[in-house]
Amino acid sequence: MKTTISRWRRIAFVLRLASALVSPVMFTTPAHAAEGEKSASVHMTERADWGKYFAAENVKGTIVVLDGKTQTYQAFDAARAQRRMSPASTYKIFNSLLALESGALDNEREIIPWDGKPRRVKAWNAAMDLRTAFRVSCLPCYQAVSHKIPREYAQAKLNALGYGNRTIGRAADAYWVDDSLQISAREQVDFLQRLARGTLPFSARTQDIVRQISIVEANADYVLHGKTGWFVDKKPDIGWWVGWLERDGNLTMVALNMDMGGDADGPKRARIVRSVLKDLKLI
């Protein structure tokens, strides 16, 4: 499906108008937040006891859990949970929505060509579909797709959702990894809840596809969705794990970010998340 830029400009205008009419209860952060600004506060129950899971891995970080049934937040290091930082590859969730809804990709099976340039991550050195690109977190794949998404369209969607600070920097194919766009862990769980419930300003088809490609584990008891991220432009590096769990008719959203010292810290993200979910008797 190929659509003219002029049409996207009309769509962007409509989305900006809709954004202006959104209830402030849903979006509590300003449209153009300053760099480093904290996200709007909500009450979070501090779970100091979850600190033992970070201590066991010898890392510093935060984790936020949002119970979909009670709409209550629990967090270890609630202050850090309110601080915005680059979403890094967790933005592939949002970017997948953009790609499908804009027509940059027709579906999750459309092949994204490889440009032939070898990358450090060997899994990226191939043509692949969106499902695979999401799973292996293929940065060049998403950068190629981003060139097909009109900047005005992406900006309008960021505004409509109230995604973090809603900032696209100079590079339209790198703003989620160059520290232009920032989001807090608390804002991540709010965004994920809307995706899990299918209430984002995207079509039902688009949201369903992204929910499907984000599944990392499914069994008779629960379905776990997730995406990792790793931001390397600041020291220490920042690692992310965000997602949600479907169990017994309820949704539980989770967002973790932590300081990263190197490759050995990568697996610690998922281990801490799983420890917290076990603590909550969800897995």
TrEMBL record:
State the UniProt keywords alphabetically: Signal
Cited InterPro entries: Beta-lactam/transpept-like, PCN-bd_Tpept
Molecular function GO terms recorded? penicillin binding
Q: Supply the source organism for this entry.
A: Pandoraea faecigallinarum
List the transmembrane segments. Answer: none
The protein depicted here goes by the name Penicillin-binding protein transpeptidase domain-containing protein
Q: Which residues form the Penicillin-binding protein transpeptidase domain?
A: 61-278
Regions annotated as coiled coil: none
Q: Which residues form the signal peptide?
A: 1-33
